[in-house]
Write a structure and sequence with these properties.
Layout lengths: L1 H18 L3 E6 L14 E2 L30 E4 L1 H5 L4 E7 L9 E7 L6 E5 L5 E3 L4 E13 L2 E7 L5 E6 L8 E8 L4 E11 L2 E12 L12 H10 L3 E4 L29 E2 L15 E2 L5 H10 L3 E6 L19 H15 L5 H8 L10 E4 L5 H18 L4 E5 L7 H12 L4 E8 L1 H6 L13 E9 L13 H16 L4 E6 L3 E3 L10 E3 L4 E3 L1 H11 L4 E2 L2 E2 L11 E8 L4 E8 L5 E8 L4 E10 L18 E8 L2 E6 L3 E8 L1
Parallel strand pairs: 1-30, 2-14, 14-17, 17-18, 18-19, 19-20, 20-21, 21-22, 23-24
Antiparallel strand pairs: 1-27, 3-6, 4-5, 5-13, 6-12, 7-12, 8-11, 8-13, 9-10, 9-12, 15-16, 24-25, 26-28, 28-29, 29-34, 30-33, 31-32, 31-34
Helix pairs in contact: 5-6, 5-7, 10-11
Length: 657
């Protein structure tokens, strides 16, 4: 019996020793390999999940110009029953197309009995968020037809109590803008706004608007400060906009047309959002695009956060998941001209037509546009023919503008393989690939680009996100397993920086109560926003890219999942630091023997890490910091260090060379 016990003990000791055998990882800081593009890590924006109207665009009034399919959507008459069936005081929709054909509907207010209250109430987007002591800018366009109707604006809390009020008087006969400033005396998550009219007379009113004064950079009528800050904190290399499937439209009439999104706000023509009726499980009948966030604002946002703009334009082919409506090749000239004119709008001299408009809007200096995407997620010969035609026109007039094309909606299969064969023949430069897969796919494909053809086009990993329950499944969560799997995959993107030039997670934003698609990188409600575990993975990669890749090996091989470890390394010539990224997907700690060639005898560094044992955990609007990075300092002697890599962790080491 004693001999058996000794044998079992010896086996256990041996197994334990084997389990603790360090994994040797070697980094050669003397041999930089490939440049890492400044555009390597960026952001993809699409107006889905109420990401623009009701989200990033800080307008608080829904259907401000009464141009939704049903003009009163978002509005309620005050008092509702009496106003609708009253011949003394009336609110009616009046057609004003002769004055403004882009936004023809206005509200006509007739007051014949000044003793009775009349007004409008707006519900906002899932209510209206107000912050205590914050100031709000009200404005509207008004035409006085007779009398002298007064306008009072009221902010309401959830109990319909007034928490702020101001008067916006007017006396102009022709159309003019009235304004007022209101201060909220309470913080409210789901408030409302009343616009009350008094005194006998008749006015027409349109573009009723309310913005917080505390916007990004304090711009009047601008963007939500907290949401832009989350983007700026990522230090993205590019911003891809405006999508996404809304570029294509369900039909060509519903495609995104950039020229309708620039110029004066009041002249921009509203369009139904293609996500309005896409998913039966998440209907959004009140989802429209006002284009207050238009191409000028996208360019400005990109400039603000130090990112290259990457606009995506229609190629004359509507969404192939929907209508597949196709413009004949001999009728494609307007699409070609739109693309060429966009370069003039972004980069042209102020004496050109579109450059002059940019200057008139407040930006005389060019935006220095360097690249444009042609089509979003199209496939087949219809797409290749249209891309070729537009590409040829660009290479004649703007040969230095890089063009982004795509391989369709998937990263494999017949459509993908067809694109892989066709695009090199069209001299494609940067090709957009999309991956919406389960977490295991991301872990298994960390070596996807290790053997890609180095003489072919460059890759833009333009849309990817691990799906915890399946693509377009409403149960998808931004959990740690998904984020950790993406981190493993991204080490492969970075390691192959000679092939992969750009990457971005998708979608970007989602309102916690108004989403159509999940998972998403950043979630928000009417008052706050937060980053998911996936956001912090993206941010850590984008904040720590380096300028060139370095060899990082174990037993002479790239780390693509051996011993459940993934790795990439780079050198940052700006800071003279070696950067090492390590991902441990195991439920056990891993002992790492790190050997860095080319360091000083003694070097200092920082360790930035996300460690979470529960793979199903995720951040929420109420608990936004369940999964966040932490940071510590360390030193390394003669380039060697023994590390214990925590289970289910993503860690970055920045070491002074």
């Amino acid at each position: 019996m004693n001999n058996i016990k000794k044998l079992i003990f010896a086996i256990l000791i041996g197994a334990n020793a084997a389990a603790q055998t360090p994994i040797k990882i070697e980094v050669d800081a003397t041999k930089p390999l490939f440049p890492i593009q400044p555009t390597m890590y960026g952001i993809f924006f699409e107006d889905i999940n109420f990401g623009a109207d009701g989200g990033l665009y800080a307008e608080l009034i829904k259907n401000r110009s009464f141009e939704f399919e049903y003009p009163w959507m978002g509005w309620k008459h005050i008092p509702e029953a009496e106003t609708r069936f009253n011949t003394e005081n009336e609110l009616t929709i009046y057609n004003n197309s002769k004055t403004n054909p882009q936004n023809p509907r206005v509200v006509r207010v007739d007051i014949r009995n000044a003793t009775k209250t009349i007004g409008l109430q707006n519900e906002g987007f899932d209510g209206i968020g107000f912050k205590k002591d914050a100031k709000y800018d009200f404005s509207a366009f008004v035409r006085s037809n007779k009398g002298n109707v007064n306008i009072e604006v009221q902010l309401l809390n959830e109990k319909d109590e007034i928490i702020g009020t101001a008067k916006a008087s007017q006396s102009s006969i022709s159309w003019g803008k009235v304004e007022a400033v209101l201060t909220a005396n309470q913080t409210v998550q789901k408030g409302k706004v009343n616009v009350i009219f008094s005194e006998v007379g008749q006015i027409d009113i349109d573009l009723i608007s309310l913005f917080p004064q505390d916007t990004w950079k304090g711009r009047k009528g601008g963007l939500r400060k907290d949401m832009v800050q989350l983007l700026a904190d990522m230090k993205p290399g590019f911003v891809r906009f405006p999508g996404g499937c809304i570029v294509e439209g369900r039909t060509l009439a519903e495609r995104y047309q950039w020229k309708k999104t620039v110029g004066k706000i009041e002249d921009r023509e509203l369009l139904i959002n293609r996500w309005n009726k896409e998913f039966s499980h998440r209907p959004a009948p009140d989802y429209y695009q006002t284009f207050g966030l238009g191409f000028y604002e996208y360019f400005l946002l990109s400039e603000d956060i130090g990112a290259e703009p990457l606009p995506i334009l229609s190629c004359g082919l509507a969404c192939q998941f929907n209508s597949s409506e196709t413009t004949p090749l001999d009728e494609l000239d307007p699409f070609v001209q739109d693309a060429l004119d966009l370069v003039e709008f972004a980069n042209g001299d102020i004496n050109t037509k579109w450059g002059a408009l940019r200057a008139e809007m407040g930006h005389p200096a060019p935006f220095n546009l360097k690249m444009i995407g042609i089509g979003n997620e199209q496939w087949g010969q219809e797409y290749f023919d249209r891309y070729e035609l537009i590409s040829k026109a660009f290479k004649v007039k703007y040969p230095n503008i890089k063009l982004v094309s795509g391989t369709g909606p998937g990263a494999e299969g017949e459509l993908f393989e067809q694109a892989e064969k066709a695009l090199p023949k069209l001299n494609a430069e940067i090709v957009d690939e999309h991956y919406y897969k389960d977490p295991k796919w991301f872990r298994d494909n960390a070596n996807r680009y290790d053997k890609y053809d180095r003489n072919r086009y460059k890759i833009f990993a333009g849309e990817y996100a691990a799906q915890s329950h399946g693509v377009v499944n409403p149960d998808n969560k931004n959990n740690w397993e998904c984020a950790l799997s993406e981190a493993a995959f991204m080490t492969g993107l970075e390691r192959n920086a000679d092939v992969v030039y750009m990457t971005s997670y998708a979608p970007l934003f989602a309102h916690v109560n108004r989403w159509q698609w999940t998972p998403d990188l950043i979630w928000f409600d009417n008052l706050t926003s937060f980053g998911t575990a996936n956001y912090y993975v993206q941010k850590l990669f984008a904040n720590n890219p380096g300028t060139s890749t370095l060899p990082i090996k174990s037993n002479g091989e790239n780390l693509t999942g051996q011993n459940e470890i993934y790795a990439s390394s780079s050198f940052d010539e700006k800071t003279n630091e070696v950067i090492i990224k390590l991902v441990n997907i195991s439920t056990e700690a891993k002992s790492i023997e790190l050997d860095i060639k080319g360091l000083a005898k003694r070097a200092s560094g920082r360790n930035i890490k996300i460690v979470e044992s529960d793979l199903k955990k995720y951040n929420t609007i109420d608990q936004p910091n369940k999964i966040t990075p932490s940071e510590s300092l360390f030193t390394i002697e003669k380039g060697k260090s023994m590390l214990s890599l925590a289970p289910n962790s993503f860690q970055i080491f920045r070491i002074k060379k």
